[in-house]
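[agent] plan:
  1. take the single chain provided in the ticket
  2. run structure prediction with default settings
  3. attach C-alpha cells to the ticket
  4. add a short note for the reviewer (M.T.)
[agent] executing step 1
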Amino acid sequence: MAVTLTETAARRVQSFLTENSVGLRFGVRPSGCSGFAYVVDLADAISGNDHVYETHGVKVVVDDKSLSFLDGTCIDFRREGLNETFVYDNPNVKNECGCGESIGF
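[agent] step 2 finished; step 3 output follows
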C-alpha cells in the first residue's frame, strides 16, 4: 500500500512547496485523548528511514515509525464555504476524538 494525494490535494501542496522542499512530510505523534495526531509539514530532506510515495508529481515522505499508522491513507483537499482543509481518509483509524484533533489506532 502507500500514502496518496488526490489531484486537488496535490495541486494545493504544490502551491506551498519552495525550491528547498522535496515534498510533503506526513506522520503521527502522540497527542490528545484518542492517542495520536497527524503531523504535516514541508519535507526539506529525505532520510534513510523515510518512505517516499509520489502522486500527481508531489512526493509524500513518511517516517518509518508512522508508516504502519498511515499506510493506505489518501489525503484530499476540500473547500466548503469559506473553510479550506485537508481531509485524511485513513483505513487504520479506529476512533477519533470528539473535537477532531486526535485519532486512535
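[agent] step 4 note for reviewer: The domain at 4-104 is CATH 2.60.300.12 (Hypothetical Protein Aq_1857; Chain: A;).
[agent] ticket updated
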